[in-house]
Structures are given as structure tokens and as C-alpha cells.
Amino acid sequence: MLFNSFEFIFVFLPVMFFGYFICNKIHPTIGKAWLFVGSLFFYSWWNPVYLWLLLASIIINYGFGTFLLKRKKNRKLILTIGIIFNVSLLGFFKYYDFFVSNINFLFDTNYNFLHLILPLAISFYTFQQIAYLVDVYQNKVEENSFLHYALFISFFPQLIAGPIVHHKEVMGQYVDRTNKRMNGENIAKGLFLFSIGLFKKVAIADTFAIWANEGFANSASLTLADGWITSLSYTFQLYFDFSGYSDMAIGLALLFNIRLPINFDSPYKAVSIQDFWRRWHITLSRFLTSYIYIPLGGNRVSVGRTYIHIFIVFFISGFWHGAGWTFIAWGVMHGMAMMVHRLWHQLGLKLPAIVAWFVTFQFINATWVFFRAPDFATALNVLTAMVRFDSVPVTMELFMENSDKLLIYLIGASLLALFVKNSIQWTDRLRPNPVYAAFAACLFIYAALRLQQVSEFLYFNF
Predict the structure, then answer these.
(1) Main-chain phi, psi angles of 303, to 5 degrees
(2) 297: domain range?
(3) Phi, psi of 425, rounded to the nearest 5 degrees
(4) How big is the CA angle at 162 (ends 161 and 163), to the nearest 5 degrees?
(5) Residue-level pLDDT at 451
(6) Torsion of CA 318, 320, 326, 332, to 10 degrees
(7) Residue 30 lies in a domain
(8) Helices vs strands, H then E, count in the chain
(9) Domain match, 382 and 271 both
(10) 396: left (phi over 0), alpha (psi -120 to 50) or beta
């Protein structure tokens, strides 16, 4: 089920919202059970076949966590087995065919592909459960209710595409009795955020998607202008798609009085690659830092090893996003950029802010091409077109037919991403009044009128 669908907005969400607070009046445990069962229904709407995988993962990881909490011996072994289980589960479903294709290519073998459909959200709930096991091992977790744990993993606003939540961030909120009653301020802020996120996805991201898809599908014939329209269209599509999802997830959780961590903080305002990763997919960066970079030794070792650790983290980040060499290349390029940034900083060098922003944005825009392209040939076609001065004008028929709209969208998206306060900043300062209500209502109504063309969020693929 998609956040941007009629059945979610006008049926599932109202039923879950009112049912939750009615159940809480009977007993808080019934309210939590209602949320858990509803979240399972939400997940199974996409493909009921993989519901068993989510449940098995929850039950097995809860078992590992219980062992770690109760046992004083062999805890490291239990943690290791738990991590291996989670990584193997993710590896089998997400990377099996990728590894087989590369083995067949390298050794001229003919192993069969399984053609597995990637289980929705497996990348997110796997990382979330690994973090939980490590936190239990480090004695950062004391609470051990199965219902609480199951809800922590499956809570529908953050289940599909994050944010990747820490146990300690939400468990106290689930047991806080003051959160069992409707909160007018949270409802206002939640609906405000949800409306902004829905508008970003339906009105902005999905429009840019049309142009980006057209450009990448015809990459061999792009001119200079076509290449830049293609790359920037995807750059802004991904921005508004992912930020839209993040807004909607946080807004939905607020309706149930749960505050999820911020996952998106105006990343295109970044003035360095390090600044970008402090703003983009914040909870993924936090996970990679806390559970990979620091355990490897972080920057507490030699300079050479520190650079190796940075490279490993971004290699994993690229591979986590997708089973393909273009994703790995994207991760490696970001890792190399982070190493260059670190060296630049250590040498005491500095660029003017506007130049630093320009270099950072151009690097991000160029590397997104690899992130989007189905193969290296397509990526190189788009990048080559972007520096092809022998053929400058717009030639793509779709681009020419929508030239005025394209220009307005590119300028408007740039202004929104670079100069306007982000939705979280707006919401933090929100004081519910008729003006804000009317603004949110206009965004919601406009987006709702476009729900006939439902599309998945881009991060569903990762």
C-alpha cells in the first residue's frame, strides 16, 4: 500500500487512526496490538507472500535479543550469529542473482538465476534489527516485550523506507500513557507535514520523473541541453520523492503521537560532501557511522587506515542501495570525494562558500546519473551529453513540447531546495491557525486530485 493512494489516505489511515485511540481507551496493550496488526496488513497489501519473511525476521531477531539480554556467556557468539543471519537474509533475496551473474561472467559458468522479487523494506528492517542486536549486546536496551519490539520494527509510517530508527528513540513513546490520547497539536503538525510530503511526491517528483525517464531511455541521442535537463530532472525527482516520503512518514507517526527522527535536512544546501551526508538519509549515515565506521576504528587509527574505513563505509552504502555495479560505482565515488574532502580539510584549505556549494552540487548531480542509470553505457551517454558542446540545443520532442513547464519546474525546484526553509523547520515553528490550515488543505487537495497516476517511491527499490 502506498502513502500516495486513495485506499491508504481515505480508508486505511482513518481506520487505523480512530481505531488506535478507541482501542487505547479499552487498554493500551490493545492499542499497540491494533497498530501492529494494521502495520502487517499495510505491508502484506503489496505482496502477502513476503509477510512470512518479515514475521520470521522479527521473531528470530527477538529471540537473539532475548538471549543477549538473559545470558552472560557466549554473548559475542550470539551477536555474531544474529548479524550473520540478518546479512545472509538480505544477501540472499537482494544480491543472489547479482552474484550469480558475476560468477557466470568471470568463470564462464551457467548457474541458474532465481529471479527473486526484492521483498519490500528488507534493506531497512534488516539494518534496524542489526542495530537493535548491537545495542542489546552493549547493554543499551533493557525492555524486552515482544509486542513492543514487533511494533518497533513494523510500525507502518517508517517500515517501508525509513527512517532507520533506534530502539531507544521510540520505545519510551510507545509506553508513555500521555501518548495514548489524541493530541491536537500533533495532529495539526502531522497533517501539515503529510500534506507537504504528498504534494512533493505527486506534484513535483512525479512530474520530474517523466522527463528523467525520457532522457535516460534515449541517452544515446542527447544533446548538451538534453543531458542537463535529464540529469537535473532526476536530481530533483529523487530529492522531492525522498524528502516527500520522509515528511509523510514523520507526519503519519505524529498522528499517533510518535516522533520519528529527522531523515532529511535540505541536503542540496550542502557546501561539502561531508555536509551533504549529514543532511541526506541522516539515519542511514548514522547507522553506517555507529555500526561500521566506529567499530572498524573510525579515525582513531593511522591516516591510511582512516581512509580505508571511509572507503569501506561508502562501498557498503553503494552496495546497500542496489545490487548493481552502477550503485557500487556511485558509492565508491562518494567515498573518494569524502577522502579528498578530509585531506583538503587537514591541509587547511578552504573555498568560498558559493564555490564550495557549486562544486558539491555539481558532483552530486553527476554521481546521481550512475545512481539512476541501468548500466554504465547509459550513465556515460548522459554525462558525455552534458559536456557535448558540438550539439547544444534541446532536441528531445518531449522536452521541446514542455519547454516552458520545464523551465518553471527547474527554477522552482531550485528555489525550493536552496532558499526556502524545509518542511521540518516550518513544522517546528508551526502554530496551528487558519492560514496554515488553508495552505495545507490546498496542497492536499491539489495532490489528491492527481492520485489517479499512482507511482511508487524511489526508495522502495532499495
Answers:
(1) -60, -45
(2) 185-461
(3) -65, -40
(4) 155
(5) 84
(6) 20
(7) yes
(8) 23, 0
(9) yes
(10) beta
Contacts of residue 185, Cβ cutoff 8 Å, sequence gap at least 6: 432
Could you tell me how many residues make up the chain? 462
Query: Amino acid identity, residue 413?
Result: A
Other Cβ atoms closer than 10 A to 181:
10
Instruction: Cell 513492543: give the residue.
Output: 148
Give residue for cell 516522533: 259
Q: Measured between alpha carbons, how far is 43 from 403 in angstroms, rounded to an integer? A: 40
Helix residue ranges per DSSP H, 256-324: 273-277, 282-288, 294-296, 303-321
Across the strands, what pairs with 257?
none
The answer to whether 163 touches 283, Cβ cutoff 8 Å, is yes
Amino acid 458: pLDDT: 85
Reduced to 3 states, what is the DSSP secondary structure of residue 264?
strand
- Give 294-342 pLDDT, tens digit per residue: 999 988 888 899 999 999 999 999 999 999 999 999 999 999 999 999 9
The number of distinct structural domains making up the chain is 2
C-alpha 36/C-alpha 164 separation (Å) is: 18
Do residues 287 and 414 both lie within one domain? yes
Neighbours of 111 (CB within 10 A): 13
The yes-or-no answer on residue 167 being catalytic is no
Question: Do 256 and 21 contact (CB within 8 A), yes or no?
Answer: no
Q: Are 253 and 151 in contact (CB under 8 A)?
A: no
Looking up cell 539515519, which residue turns up? 283
Give the relative orientation of helices 167-175 and 146-154 as an angle to the nearest 10 degrees.
120
What is d(CA 303, CA 301) in angstroms, rounded to the nearest whole number?
7
The mean of the pLDDT values for the chain is 93
* Same domain membership, residue 198 and residue 175: no
* Peptide linkage before 261 cis (omega within 30 of 0): no
Strand, coil or helix: 280 = strand
Q: Which amino acid is at 117?
A: I
- Report d(CA 230, CA 382) in Å as an integer: 8
Question: Helices 376-385 and 224-255 meet at what angle, rounded to 10?
Answer: 120
In a domain, 1, yes or no: no
Q: What is the pLDDT of residues 368-384, one digit of tens each?
A: 999 999 999 999 999 99
Distance, in Å, from the CA atom of 207 to the CA atom of 185, rounded to the nearest integer, reads 32
Question: Which ranges of 297-402 does DSSP label H, i.e. alpha helix?
Answer: 303-321, 325-346, 353-372, 376-385, 397-401
Based on the fold, state whether residues 228 and 355 are members of the same structural domain: yes
Q: Do residues 359 and 340 make contact, with C-beta atoms less than 8 angstroms apart?
A: no
Residues 58, 126: Cα–Cα separation, whole Å: 10
pLDDT for residue 462: 74
DSSP 329: H
Q: Are residues 104 and 223 in the same domain?
A: no
pLDDT < 70 regions, the chain? none
| Residue from 321, 334, 341, 345 carrying the catalytic annotation | 321
